[in-house]
């Protein structure tokens, strides 16, 4: 009885801690989300939390000082003297705050505390990102024409074209390899496996120029095939290792009985291994997909920035303009690019959970 | 039995595979070594070949017209020229609209690829053998380092030098001559330029307040003091720019250097012969400090300089009434101005006044240099096209860029402000390129930025900061 109560108490603490961690993790995302609906000028001036009702100093009575007040001397306001710096930052007197309203005109405002709720929200950031920005071009006669830039749709399909094969190919190859390493006895198995594990520590940066040279001679540069192969190769060691860990844990008896029943390796793989390793396939699939979807470096080197093949991450980076003048668009662009991975995650999560459960009950 | 052979076979295959892998690994190295070894003669051959090719072609060209004329006749219809550069978004749209007519007339398809990571990527592409036909370098220092490897085509034999001399100020041509693998080469041609000696101010309010544009440095300082007395800090300065924080400060130093010492000293300084610790440079920083370190002169005080993004700095000028009045920045800053503000009416610029009259009216410029990596007739035609003012005419009309070519008419500029800028460049007694862009990356895009940031933020004294900047040359 007492033990049960204790466990309950422990659970609350765990939940509380988890709740706090979730909150800390989600807070910046929430801020980004709110910012994505704010106009550019607002983002520059105030924090995203200002969209909520909050107390703020609001304009009150204006005091006019004499025009020739010397700002470098102590300044007298209502019988009290203040320094210029104080008035710049604001001095609280009773319930109000004295602050420069217009230093040039020598006016001071007696501000009062008040509640403020003016959530000024807009969809401009989203429409600019989704359907393309408008650029103003001036013609020879001085008239202005608007030219519409491209939206995200082309980049979205490009990224999908890259990400789906670049997820399926390595996961498939790695599953074959993992099965072989786990259940086939062939000489040099351990050595090969160690070599593959060793490849995990090779940073992809060192491979970029050599691979690019080979791609140039093979004519694979800027082609989808090239980038599929690049992502496959860079992803394979980890995926193989991950799948090996899972497949080698499957009960040996299953395969032995299947073998006795006359199943070939391919039958065992397709009929037994694949269905049993759905949870592992789903989770490593999510990892690999996220990696490819968010990738910038590999795309930058192997596929480039031509509009016909440009991926989302590069298109989004370009949105801010040559000198970063439109960085506020990154807020909405981030959320748009997040949609796909989120969708994939929730879609696969079903299999993920079911696969785990199925494995545990049936053995 | 069957199984045993299968096993042996797989063993043999695995061994073979690993062997071939090892061999190909080593072989690859050997190949690259060989390539490296054979590279110098090949490279020396290449220019020679292109030269020898160039001369008959040149004589041919004399008969049939230059590559550009041939292109205009439709000789190269259906060919593609790849181009790689740093401008994206609005600039890319403006660039593409400026070459549209050329593409339609000649049938050459210029495939422009813009990337925010140009500086990082171009080296990888050139090393990886995947260089674009033409690349647009905003920093000539970067092109200079690539030119040394011998991978840039020498334009001396490609473009008609007489035509170039007629169409460019000599300073521009001098700046495009760089060290190649074997001696000096003409590494590129200038296509766009921007002016960096401009002080932007809110014109309407400035006139209403009864201020007049200062003609000398002392006038400017007096006006700054006057504005401070009237109740505003005169200057709004921001040097924050992410990983590039500090570059805006280098423009100040370069401008002041040109106004307090000889152009020769400036050139020496850029080459690293005049150290940062010398009295000339120290003096320049001190002149700057008289404005920067005076909290009454800078919007938000000295501390905010380092934390204000250079693009956000002009914003207080457009408040009503303005909270600050002057912002020293190149002409590209107008893309950060509020969209509602109108050029010539709401804002304008004045030339950063001279300090010492004996150095005349020097102008600091920056620009984009186009280099050629693959020598094909259609690429030559496109390069020749880029030496004509026509190639950026529509961009000039849209504003934000100055054409360095002489055949670019002043009438093309649709705003008075741009036209005055173009005139300023044409009439300049001394034209000098942004020094930090010319210095090697370690200094110009490294210690110089960082040293200035440390000095302004107060984490280093002036002497220490200058020593720190100078140390970039030493390693």
How does this model look, in words?
The complex is a heterodimer of chains A (about 375) and B (about 475). Chain A is an alpha+beta fold and about 375 residues long. Chain A has a domain at about 150-360: MetI-like fold (Orthogonal Bundle). Helices cover about 60% and strands about 15% of the residues of chain A. Chain A has helices at about 1-35, 40-45, 85-90, 125-130, 155-185, 190-200, 205-220, 225-245, 250-260, 265-275, 280-295, 295-300, 310-320, 330-360; strands at about 55-65, 75, 80, 90-95, 95-100, 105-115, 135-140, 145-150. A 4-stranded antiparallel sheet of chain A has the order 1-6-5-4. Chain A has a two-stranded antiparallel ribbon with strand order 2-3. A two-stranded antiparallel ribbon of chain A has the order 7-8. In chain A, strand 7 (about 135-140) and strand 8 (about 145-150) form a beta hairpin. Chain A is elongated. The relative contact order of chain A is 0.10. In chain B, strand 4 (about 175-180) and strand 5 form a beta hairpin. The longest helix of chain B has about 60 residues, at about 1-65. Chain B is globular and about 65 Å long. The chains are: A alpha+beta (about 375), B alpha/beta (about 475). Chains A and B meet through strand 7, helix 7 and helix 13 of A and helix 1, helix 3, strand 2, helix 4 and helix 9 of B.
Key descriptive features of the protein:
A: 363 residues, alpha+beta, MetI-like fold, 4-stranded antiparallel beta sheet, elongated, disordered C terminus, B: 475 residues, alpha/beta, D-Maltodextrin-Binding Protein, domain 2, 6-stranded mixed beta sheet
